[in-house]
Amino acid sequence: MKMKKTITAFASVLALTSINAEAKTLWSDNSISLLYGSTFEGAEEDKKKVTLTLEHASGHSWGDVFFFMDRLRATEGDNNSEVWSELHPRFSIPKLTGTDWDSGPIKDFYLSTQIEMGSNKNVNQTNYLVGAGVDFDVPGFKFLKLNAYSRSNENYDSNYQVSPAWAVPIELGNQKFLFDGWIDWVSKTKNNGADVASNWQTHLQLKYDLGNLWGSEHTVYVGTEYRYWHNKFGVSGWNERVWQGLIKVHL
């Protein structure tokens, strides 16, 4: 029954895309990041990890798409790597219906979808999310988004998720920085009858625009990321705090 509902929801998404047969790409950005942190929660050999992240973001005449894939590899031990990826297509209701939308602080609203795929030495999973999203027009923000989903999980009972994301450019004299990040709050659920606690995680990045030094702004960033996961994997009281160094290159 869960899979049937998921297939029906995604079929509806595909049907919506046919409303605008001449979809155009308005903008696109691709990047690759390298991060290192040494305080990950888990077995001793999994505490120090290098993460390679690929990202894609693009805007279209029907909405937008965000994709990322993390490849985490512990620097000690064997067979201790993991991959996590997410694909986020969002479909603009005003654009697809030809509505002239102008509502002050709300720039756009969407049918939001998401596919999560993860694998490590212990488990593989694919989760499907469907919900609604809003983009806000807030002075000083490059973007501010809020998405809320119903989750259909492969290894857990269905539950809910709320996810804000933001980016704020900062200028100090001639120096440019970017503060961006996201939060995923996930409601409690069950796994084969066992309780899985409500949990939330955030990744906060403060990056210095290194490319600006040679007249190529927004191409190369260096900085730091703070990663916090409350009730990691839904285990009550298991919290992860990781500071990571990073370098990010836009391609």
Helices and strands in order:
Layout: H1 2-17, E1 25-37, E2 49-60, E3 63-74, E4 81-92, H2 93-97, E5 106-119, E6 124-136, E7 143-152, E8 159-172, E9 175-186, E10 189-191, E11 194-196, E12 199-209, E13 220-230, E14 240-250
Antiparallel strand pairs: 1-2, 1-14, 2-3, 3-4, 4-5, 5-6, 6-7, 7-8, 8-9, 9-12, 10-11, 12-13, 13-14
Describe this structure in words.
The protein is mostly beta strands and 251 residues long. The protein has a single domain (2-20, 28-250), classed as Outer membrane phospholipase (ompla), Chain C (Beta Barrel). Helix content is 8%, strand content 60%. The chain is built from two helices and 14 strands; from the N terminus they run αββββαββββββββββ. The protein has a twelve-stranded antiparallel beta barrel. A two-stranded antiparallel sheet has the order 10-11. Strand 3 (63-74) and strand 4 (81-92) form a beta hairpin. Residues 16-21 have low confidence and may be disordered.
Terminal-residue CA separation? 42 Å
Uncertain residue segments: 16-21
Number of strands: 14
Class by alpha and beta content: mainly beta
Largest sheet: 12 strands, antiparallel, barrel
Shape field: globular
Give the gist of this structure:
The chain is mainly β. It has two helices and 14 strands; from the N terminus they run H-E-E-E-E-H-E-E-E-E-E-E-E-E-E-E. It has helices at residues 2-17, 93-97; strands spanning 25-37, 49-60, 63-74, 81-92, 106-119, 124-136, 143-152, 159-172, 175-186, 189-191, 194-196, 199-209, 220-230, 240-250.
Features:
globular, 14 strands, 60% strand, 8% helix, 2 helices, two-stranded antiparallel ribbon, 251 residues, Outer membrane phospholipase (ompla), Chain C, mainly beta
